[in-house]
Design goal:
Rossmann fold, five-stranded antiparallel beta sheet, 410 residues, globular, binds magnesium ion, Dna Ligase, domain 1, 18 strands, 3 domains, binds adenosine-5'-diphosphate, alpha+beta, single chain, 30% helix
């Protein structure tokens, strides 16, 4: 029997477009003999849409036309209701567009990767791929994530954090607190950013003030870290659950400037239009060949990463420990920084729904991506089954013990 899979993408996030690319790449790797795929696109407005037209990337050029011609849909946060409903139905038509067996989220960033949607899906009871609400939320907030990793003895660079209200109330005081803790240069980030949005390096007080004003325009929580000036970035994907997981080969994404930018991540590899194809090699460095339409696959990268003796194994081990510490599920990518001054290795961040679902890392690890997707979907069902065995009601009725005619005081 075929499974009906809701492929959820888009979202109220600055990474909406990247998510379209991830979703369409994922769709390409899904076995159509096994799965009926129902595309569900969350527009930047927050409205949900479902229809075949969402599966053609060229249609996104004219967003208004695409959405005007695509049915608006919704799910109800009612446990056990796995239906996708049409907002508008004809007089006699059924309001149910599809009944989902499982949902595969391929969205990135705020409102998407941070537990928000995972909470909605959990409320419906539909099995879904990837991290639950807790792991997603912890993984998204760079402050909370670093606190947990530090507590677990996993190395992270020195950091300092504050919120926007503290900043606007007394910029001098916050600056003095930072300067007492971390020497310049530093890097200032919105705690919940992604795709390098809102991030700036600062080499002195004036640049720091400017960088914080900029970061605070994106979010309320701000993290400042020691800027590692001679660094090598290494990424490693992990798949499995909090109890049993495996790490992929490592990659080194290549930067054009001081920090790995949005352009480096999504817009560098080769030409800008649609040529499909596998990885290509640029002087020993591999990248996909389809430019901006290829999302994370278009990053120029070295794969597998050429590192010093033992570093790959150490990174893979720390990647698994990070996945476990954050209670992850499904597939994540953990990003590392190697400080080339002393070869210290630090976890920089986790992406619980990584660009292109890190397909290129798994393919380079000898895993066919359609099989990876099969495993992720099987795992979504397994988790849902395990959760159904947990007690959610211990049969007590506190109201039954109340004296008859008693007041409403507890
Ligand atoms: N502590 C640091 N020192 C030096 N460069 C950093 C540091 N943290 C981040 N960067 C650079 O900034 C980029 C984006 O930061 P990151 O924390 O990964 O945020 P995002 O979630 O936006 O990807 C990194 O890929 C790296 O190039
Ligand atoms: Mg990053």
């Amino acid at each position: 029997m075929k499974l009906t899979v809701g492929l959820l993408f888009g979202g109220r996030s600055v990474e909406n477009e990247i998510s379209v690319v991830t979703a369409l790449q994922t769709l390409e790797s899904m076995d159509k003999e096994k799965y009926d795929v129902v595309p569900i696109y969350i527009a930047k407005s927050g409205k949900w849409y479902s229809g075949e037209a969402l599966l053609t990337v060229a249609n996104y050029r004219d967003m208004k036309k695409l959405l005007d011609g695509t049915p608006e849909v919704y799910m109800r946060p009612v446990y056990g209701d796995r239906n996708l409903y049409k907002v508008k139905t004809g007089l006699l038509g059924s309001p149910v567009l599809a009944t989902l067996d499982v949902v595969l989220p391929t969205l990135h960033g705020t409102n998407c990767e941070d537990g928000t949607l995972q909470g909605v899906l959990t409320s419906t009871g539909v099995p879904f791929v990837g991290c639950n609400t807790l792991a997603s939320a912890n993984g998204m907030d760079k402050i909370t994530m670093k606190m947990i990793l530090k507590e677990c003895g996993i190395p992270v660079v020195d950091y300092f954090w504050f919120n926007d209200k503290e900043w606007y109330a007394d910029k001098d005081a916050v600056t003095a607190r930072l300067e007492a803790k971390i020497p310049y240069p530093v890097i200032v980030k919105p705690a919940n950013s992604g795709s390098s949005v809102g991030i700036k390096a600062a080499h002195n007080t004036a640049e720091f003030v400017e960088a914080v004003d900029y970061a605070a325009s994106f979010t309320t929580r701000i993290i400042v870290e020691r800027l590692v000036t001679r660094l090598k970035e290494v990424n490693c994907s992990v798949m499995g659950n909090y109890n049993d997981c495996e790490a992929s080969v490592c990659e080194v994404p290549l930067r054009s400037g001081e920090i790995l930018s949005y352009q480096d991540k999504y817009m560098r590899g080769g030409g800008s239009k649609g040529a499909k194809g596998g990885a290509r090699s640029v002087g020993g460095v591999k990248s996909a060949s389809a430019g901006e339409s290829e999302g994370m696959r278009s990053t120029l990268r070295e794969i597998p990463a050429k590192l010093q003796e033992g570093e790959t194994e150490r990174i893979q081990q720390l990647a698994r420990e990070t996945f476990r510490a954050l209670a992850c599920d499904g597939l994540s990518r953990i990003d590392f920084i190697i400080d080339e001054e002393d070869r210290s290795i630090y976890v920089n961040e986790i992406n619980t729904i990584p660009g292109s679902l890190s397909s290129y890392l798994w393919e380079a690890s000898g895993r066919k991506f359609p099989e990876v997707i099969d495993a992720l979907i099987a795992q979504a069902f397994a988790r849902s089954r395990e959760e159904s065995f947990k007690v959610t009601d211990f049969g007590g009725n506190i109201f039954a013990a109340m004296p008859a005619g008693g007041g409403s005081k507890m």
